[in-house]
Automatic annotation (TrEMBL):
It comes from marine metagenome. The keyword Cytoplasm does not apply. GO terms for biological process: cobalamin biosynthetic process; methylation. Residues 23-186 form the Tetrapyrrole methylase domain. Keywords: Cobalamin biosynthesis, Methyltransferase, S-adenosyl-L-methionine, Transferase. InterPro entries: 4pyrrol_Mease (IPR000878), 4pyrrol_Methylase_sf (IPR035996), 4pyrrole_Mease_sub1 (IPR014777), 4pyrrole_Mease_sub2 (IPR014776), CobI/CbiL (IPR012382), CobI/CbiL/CobIJ_dom (IPR006364). This is Tetrapyrrole methylase domain-containing protein. GO terms for molecular function: precorrin-2 C20-methyltransferase activity. Pathway: Cofactor biosynthesis; adenosylcobalamin biosynthesis. It holds the Pfam family TP_methylase. Belongs to the precorrin methyltransferase family.
Amino acid sequence: VAVISFTQLDDGKESYALNVVRGVLEAAKPEFLAIMIPSDDETPVSPQTWTDAAAEIAGHLSQGKDVAFITEGDPMLYSEFFQVLGSVKSVVSNLEFEVIPGVSSVMAASASSGTPLVTHGQRLTILPKVYGIDDLREAITNSDTTVLMEVDHDLLQALANLEKLGLTGKATYVRQASTSRENVVEDISKLEAEDLDYFSLLIIRR
């Protein structure tokens, strides 16, 4: 592939996806196309960002170059791939593309912790963020297993009273699953703010 594209947070840190694959790309020496997005979760990515990215990608495609967009986990689960693909489709007619599945953090965390997600008709809910204890209670009530992504301070506060939610001994925290920094915590009452990581999640089984 001649061009590797990826999203890059504007805080200056290297793209996590690029860092993962950089070693295997050295021999190929591809061009890199970074799409800058806000590092603040509260700031949405502007539509113009995707429009500009699509124009750049279309330019490479018009020169006969293949372009790959890399993501963390699977491109079809909570990924910017949707926006990139849709934007490129709007400017490139008859676009040919292939989606290569990856291992999502949800599946990796389940495997690393030995925690099954669902079996035999059970219900699974995956939430990108929880905005309070009521939101969390509703998800847990309606599902056999709930996966909460982006474990942050708000979620820790919502989980402060585990007995009230009936979660004692039923929640597993996994940070950076399948990496050298992986950490699995079975007793989430011992989680501290410094344990939190953007690439972390919580698996709750009723």
